[in-house]
Structures are given as structure tokens and as C-alpha cells.
Amino acid sequence: MSGTENIRKLTEEIKAGYQLVKEKKFEEAKQKLEPYVQVLHSKEKPNVRLLVNYSIAQFGTGDFEGFLQSYTEIKELEATNCSEEQRIKQLDNFFHQVMDHLSKED
Hints:
By secondary structure, the chain is mainly alpha-helical. It has a single domain, classed as Tetratricopeptide repeat domain (Serine Threonine Protein Phosphatase 5, Tetratricopeptide repeat), CATH 1.25.40.10. The protein has five helices and no strands. It has helices at 3-22, 26-40, 48-60, 64-75, 82-105. Helix 2 (26-40) packs antiparallel against helix 3. The N and C termini lie far apart (56 Å).
């Protein structure tokens, strides 16, 4: 396989993970995205879209500790464009909705 084919396959795999999150197939999404988070995301070179989708999959699978770690990391990032800013705001809104819901159950 050529380098271009490898990149295309990698991109398709990540997009498939994003689609699984949209379909609420969180366990499959988490499994698909996790290796890419470890390789394609770092504090020095953040991948906001990947980390936001992964954190949603973590929450959907009940991995609340992992979700909170990812959420904390995302909150420390600065968005570099409008798309990243929007994703961070969406996750922040989601987090606050969950916290409001939990506080009402008490």
C-alpha cells in the first residue's frame, strides 16, 4: 500500500468512528477511535475533533473517569478555528446538561 492509500484508510477509519458516535454506537466508536487518540493527539499537537468524539464515546460507554479526563484536557485547549471552538462549546454544554441532570436527581 502506498503512503496515500495508508492515509486514506486512516482517514476512513476515523470518519467511521465519528459516524459510530453519531449513531450512538459508543462501544464500537470508542474501540475504533482509541488507538488514533493515542497516536494523533497530544497537548503539543491537539486534535480537538478526535478528542471530543472520543470523549462522547467514553461517556456513552460509562467510562466516566475517562470522560472527565478527556473533558478536562479539552477545556485546557485553545481552539484554533471556528469548528474547534464550536466542538468545545458543544461538549461543554453537554457536560453542564449532565451535571444539571445529576444535581436534580439528588
